[in-house]
Amino acid sequence: GQNIDQPTEMTATEGAIVQINCTYQTSGFNGLFWYQQHAGEAPTFLSYNVLDGLEEKGRFSSFLSRSKGYSYLLLKELQMKDSASYLCAVGVKAAGNKLTFGGGTRVLVKP
Amino acid sequence: GAVVSQHPSWVICKSGTSVKIECRSLDFQATTMFWYRQFPKQSLMLMATSNEGSKATYEQGVEKDKFLINHASLTLSTLTVTSAHPEDSSFYICSAGGLAGIYTDTQYFGPGTRLTVL
What we know:
The complex is a heterodimer of chains A (111) and B (118).
Chain A: E1 3-5, E2 9-13, E3 18-25, E4 29-37, E5 44-49, E6 53-57, E7 60-65, E8 70-75, E9 84-92, E10 98-101, E11 105-110
Parallel strand pairs in A: 2-11
Antiparallel strand pairs in A: 1-3, 3-8, 4-5, 4-9, 6-7, 7-8, 9-10, 9-11
Chain B: E1 4-7, E2 10-13, E3 19-25, E4 32-38, E5 45-51, E6 57-58, E7 67-73, E8 76-81, E9 90-97, E10 108-109, E11 113-117
Parallel strand pairs in B: 2-11
Antiparallel strand pairs in B: 1-3, 3-8, 4-5, 4-9, 5-6, 7-8, 9-10, 9-11
């Protein structure tokens, strides 16, 4: 099976940087996904890592180390609208590309 | 690209009735669609995986006779909650995968359907 761990909550100040860590144990790894979910809404896709290294997309970056079973999502220049839950999910190829989600990290951005 | 719609966005029904939720990929053909359920302040729980033209694969603990899934085309999947009860009240979210290109394994989510059973 899959085991995915991420912190439950994080608080940061507007304009700052926050790093959300995610560790996982899985078989048949087929990519690490990060989604953002605002309260009462569906998740929106942020990033996808399948090879080791850093992927940068504007203010958001995601890093993957497959050997360590570790990823992080880096949010720079935080804005109030970034207050949301951030979901780490692992894809499993053998299971029809289904995703297993971590519990999510609630990020609260304060002025 | 990669827009997924879901209908209805919310529904209130009486206990014992059935509710159908539609999930459509609007601008791409989805080889696979997924149905999730999410309770307040919890993460997404996968209920089932459906492929066009074949039977859905249900996760352990999900009753396939209660949650009927039909994947009639590459752009439409439906979830029917049969004989709904108050404990079925939840946020139901579908996702679609199979977008051509580098994100073919990425799932794109519909806006969700909030079901309340009285």
